[in-house]
From TrEMBL:
It comes from Flavobacterium psychroterrae. Residues 240-267 form a coiled coil. Gene3D superfamilies: Histidine kinase-like ATPase, C-terminal domain, Tetratricopeptide repeat domain. SUPFAM superfamilies: ATPase domain of HSP90 chaperone/DNA topoisomerase II/histidine kinase, TPR-like. Its EC number is 2.7.13.3. CDD domains: HATPase_UhpB-NarQ-NarX-like. The lineage of its organism: Bacteria, Pseudomonadati, Bacteroidota, Flavobacteriia, Flavobacteriales. This is histidine kinase. GO terms for molecular function: ATP binding. Keywords: ATP-binding, Coiled coil, Kinase, Membrane, Nucleotide-binding, Transferase, Transmembrane, Transmembrane helix, Two-component regulatory system. The chain crosses the membrane at residues 271-291. Residues 407-494 form the Histidine kinase/HSP90-like ATPase domain. It catalyses: ATP + protein L-histidine = ADP + protein N-phospho-L-histidine.
Amino acid sequence: MAEIQSVFSNYVVSEALLTKTLPYLKKTSKPIYARNVYSFIGYNYYNMYDYQNAILYHRKAFHLPGSSFKKTLILTDIILVYLAQKRYQEAAEILEILASKKITFKKDPQSSEKLYFEILNNLGFCYYNLKINGSLNLYNKSLKANLKLDNDFGLINNYKNLSNYYLISNPELAKEYAKKSYQRACKVNSATNKANSLAQLIKTTKGNDLKKYSLDYIKIIDSITKGRKQAKNQFSTIKYESKKDKEENFQLKAQKAENDLQLEKQKKRNIISYVIIFFSTVSSFALYFHLTSKVKKEKDKLIFESEMRISGKLHDELANDVYKTLAYAEKIDLSQEKNREQLLNILDTIYFRTRNISKENSPIITNENYNIALKEMISGYKTSDINIILNGFDLITWNKIEKNKKIILYRVLQELFSNMKKHSQATLVSINLKKDEKKLTVVYNDNGVGTNKKTTISKNGLQNVETRIKTINGNIIFDNNLEKGFRLTFSIPL
């Protein structure tokens, strides 16, 4: 976004956007992000004629780790600021060092070639202004190479500098070089370069041609100004329309969800098929857990036994409810509206219980999206009566934690929240995470009715929590000293 604003000459807006990135630069180990941010800030200051700050941020970018080619690119940015300040001696000292050793960019050798001959051209420009011999030789060497590379942008500057060199000693030759610079600028259709080349042509031209080039110059400057204004307005419109579209999409999603709910309640004619689908779903879950048990590793044996208890829950509770529903459907008169509504309510209850069990036992995402999946699971327990607070969650480097330990953490928190919702009557839950080099520590708190460890484990099913933690050599502490509420602390070795 900052780069787009900079292209549209919105340098102040671009800088404001870049400033928002600064707190996050400390959280990444990759210097490319900080280097890009500092370079763009320096570029914005350069275009706002704040040369002191431009150099400051380019130097910040230069001191970050990077290849010789990248550091050379940053130095050329600093040299542009020096040239704008007419600090030709300081610019020449850096350019002489860069010109003495040719830096090669292996991924794109032609880019390093173009950069090298740009350095020679700029060094020639410094020599010319310092009245040091050798500027013409450097200009011609750079020109010859850029002609071979067909480097339009390099040739624009070559011809412009040569035109300026011959401005007094050979006006006709100066005019020819100015024309060539303008022709190359027209070829690449660069408005800024065309304006600069026309300015040079005006210096070398007299008579009718002078009037023609002057009018062209005024026209292109007006075009640039108008284009930038239009770009600013267009960008503002895009931002407005994007925000508007998002709001409309949220409204449509809410409306669609409401319509889906109404349609679901109207499917009375599919009652028997509905029951069969649920029975098949229950059977599929039981079969899935039975087959999975054959391929589990020894290390996950205790965890799997816990999952089998959930499978038993499916069979004992839901299957029994399905059979009862089938018997109920056979006995009652479904032609009566009251009986059909009663049957639909029973089916809805079975559906939501099945869906909840499905969510509790669905495969867990352990890739780079793990933190998102974990947050979504936790947020699923938040209601208008239950508030959940997470502390330290975003400070954990999740991709450095082993896959099986991510699964354990996910299931343990899921078990705690499930137990809270069923038994504790809590209205506030907090999760605090803290990581050091050896372990990840998690503290669970709620303001529910509270209980002692023995009752907690036997009645509320938190034996599973203790079992899971022990399978990875973790520690778990139940706090029994609270007057009200429940606290549990566990740590996972890393």
